Amino acid sequence: MAKILEGPAMKLFNKWGIPVPNYVVIMDPNRLEQLGEANKWLRESKLVVKAHEAIGGRFKLGLVKLGLNLDEALKAAKEMIGREIGTSVVRQVIVAEMLDHDEEYYISIAGNRDGAEILLSNKGGVDIEEHWDTVKRLFIPLDETPSIEHITEVALEAGFIGEIAERVAKIISRLILCFDVEDAQSIEINPLVIRKSDMRFAALDAVMNVDWDARFRHADWDFKPVSEIGRPFTEAEQQIMDIDARIKGSVKLVEVPGGNIALLTAGGGASVFYSDAVVARGGSIANYAEYSGDPPDWAVEALTETICMLPDIKHIIVGGAIANFTDVKATFNGIINGFRESKSKGYLENVKIWVRRGGPNENQGLAAMKKLQEEGFDIHVYDRSMPMTDIVDLALNS
User: Fold this and answer.
1) 22-97 has which CATH code?
2) Beta strands in the chain (DSSP E)
3) Is the pTM of this model over 0.85?
């Protein structure tokens, strides 16, 4: 699952006929001046400026400004862009038309293994949680689409009146299409409003999660997913994500600055197990990583090279449980090639490598790892008889 920011989500809403305010996303405040010359609504409307980042509590942090003219919006954008919030940096803002309205509504849709569930309430906005008893639910089984009439009935139950209920039902039907075709996993509109100027609906905010592995089906997805770790993805993390999207199996990487124990671990829970083991013993991890599902050796090689380039590492833990179908020899070939390539580039100086693994073709894979000792690698290799976390103890005590 990948979260996308408000701007890309609103672009997809537009695509599926879900109305949104006029808006622009900018990284350079000077761009707003240029856009103001070309867009009448920027010059004549009251504006909202928001940090276009995955930062919670933006309003309380002063990262949402309301009711601005263009000059004030430009000033707000200059103040926000570049501002550091914890480990995050505001790199872009979204500037939107501020719509005069009275009521605020709430709509969401989320998938599960049996279908999807729609939630709706006529008491939306920032206080929706205080009005959760007003939320009505509509479950949609797999391969079924509810009729407008059925959705209207639920809208009436949620407190929407007459024509408003019918119009909300039409918005929801478009939202279902967006959800299905765009490979979404959840969408939330809060608030949905009726603007006073023309009595049309508009989604003022959008939260959307999509199946990022399905992006090969969407040539118009010109956005990147939001990092859920409190900062943008690093270049190395993005490169591994791009590889992960193209292969059978999986490779993952998250960098953890300041650590000196690098992890190159198998999936199936072992990656989390080893991470916890290092931290529980007072160690400091330099990354989280895993390879699983029998990925091709070239992908594992790329992951290995990336991990070997992490700064200030003293140990690399190549750990895993006993694999069911991942070919140990093949994946170890990728790791070995990655080690050799990294060493040729000057990496792995004074780095100890600790290996523990079992599974299909483990004897050949472990033997190939041991041969690296003959090439000058400080590598220590153990088979399935070694308890999984003992290599962590050996590394920390060495």
Assistant:
1) 3.30.1490.20
2) 2-4, 23-26, 47-51, 64-68, 84-85, 88-89, 93-97, 101-112, 115-121, 136-141, 184-195, 201-203, 206-210, 250-255, 261-263, 265-266, 287-292, 315-322, 352-358, 378-382
3) no
| Torsion of the alpha carbons at 75, 77, 78 and 82, rounded to the nearest 10 | 160
- pLDDT of 229 higher than 90: no
The tokens 């609906």 sit on which residue? Answer: 201
| Owner of token pair 């809403």 | 13
pLDDT at 52: 94
- Residue intervals of the chain classified under CATH 3.30.470.20 are 101-217
pLDDT in tens, 265-283: 998 788 999 999 999 999 9
Give the chain's radius of gyration (CA, Å). Answer: 26
- CA dist 97 and 95 (Å) reads 7
CB 165 within 8 A of CB 135: no
Architecture of domain 101-217 in this structure: 2-Layer Sandwich (3.30)
Assigned CATH topology for domain 235-397: Rossmann fold (3.40.50)
Taking the alpha carbons of 341, 347, 352, 355 in that order, is the dihedral positive or negative? Answer: negative
